[in-house]
From TrEMBL:
Keyword annotations from UniProtKB, A to Z: Membrane, Transmembrane, Transmembrane helix
Protein name: Regulator SirB
Organism: Mariprofundus erugo
Pfam families: SirB
Membrane spanning stretches: 6-24, 45-63, 69-88, 100-121
GO cellular component: plasma membrane
Length: 124
């Protein structure tokens, strides 16, 4: 595994761990309110994750317009970000946070499966 891919996957693991922690805290009605732990660190990790992905794609000559799996992955990342945002930021009916959190985790599972198999439908 190349160093960059290792970095990318390490960032995925940290990002997912932070998202899960914040989601569980939100679920139990005690949202993380520390600026650093709740925003700055996760935002930095996620930015580095996206940058490492773009560099990987550039170096490995894969592009979303040529490789369907990467297009599917990017589309799923947008969906993940939207549901992740609602899961962590929405203030109101807590069921909306919870359902969004579960959908975001399922979409994340899809993203990892697509990245690993390089197939749009990884389970087929
Ligand atoms: C939420 C964001 C992301 C997640 C969770 C994610 C997840 C992963 C994972 C788990 C792998 C390793 C697959 C394996 O070898 O088992 C991977 C590889 C890769 N990712 Fe990402 N990624 C993300 C963002 C991106 C972005 C934004 C790009 C490009 C624009 C990208 C491009 C790639 C490429 C080119 C590989 C190498 C695929 C290969 O093994 O040949 N990733 N990603």
């Amino acid at each position: 595994m190349s160093g960059l891919l290792l970095l990318h996957v390490t960032l995925v693991v940290i990002s997912l761990a932070l998202f899960t922690w914040r989601g569980v805290r939100m679920w139990s009605g005690r949202p993380v309110d520390s600026r650093r732990a709740g925003r700055l660190i996760p935002d930095t990790i996620d930015t580095l994750l996206l940058i490492s992905g773009v560099v990987l794609a550039y170096l490995w000559h894969v592009a979303p317009w040529a490789d369907g799996w990467l297009a599917a992955k990017l589309a799923a990342i947008v969906v993940y970000i939207l549901f992740g945002f609602v899961a962590l930021q929405y203030r109101g009916d807590r069921r909306i946070n919870r359902v969004s959190f579960i959908i975001a985790l399922l979409v994340m599972g899809y993203i990892v499966a697509v990245a690993h198999t390089m197939q749009i439908w990884p389970w087929l």
